[in-house]
Amino acid sequence: MDLHMSFKPGCEQWRAASRYFTMVRKDIQRTHMARLEPREFLFMNDVLPPLRLRIWSSVEMTVEALQELIPWVRKVTGLVDQLSAEPTSGMNVRQFVRTAIWPPRLMGTIFMERLHDHDPYTLEAGPVVTVGVVNGDTVLLAGSAVSYVALAPHMYGLSVAQSGSFLIEHVRDN
Length: 174
Description:
Layout: E1 2-9, H1 11-33, E2 38-43, E3 51-57, H2 63-85, H3 90-101, E4 109-115, E5 127-134, E6 137-142, E7 146-152, E8 155-160, E9 164-171
Antiparallel strand pairs: 1-9, 2-3, 3-4, 4-5, 5-6, 6-7, 7-8, 8-9
Helix pairs in contact: 2-3
């Protein structure tokens, strides 16, 4: 698998790409989330910080499915946080895209919001990071400073606040 990435720097480019990617993201969500019901989960253990998720899914969220999903969610949302903090690091972008492209072997459609975790017991919580997987393909990831969307098969857009935007093509090996 190879990634071809082109970068257009600048705040204006970032703003334009963000506006477009937001429209694409809203269309994806409108198309795929309308028939799904959200459920909230709180994952706690002794080692990692609490993880609050709101999940819409076309597949049943069994314990096994959640155990496969949670490590990927932690990793990819951590990369959203890292890329937001260090937007100009090319390595972070490649790592982000390689992780984002391959979610766990989920079939169906799943959307998740990682909710504020400063107080896992609060009832009010807006999303910190939004993740969307449709038919096993990651179609959106969004945080406060990062927006990643599938634009076409094997073609993705990534905007990074104050930095610019990337057009990313996933070229499959023959």
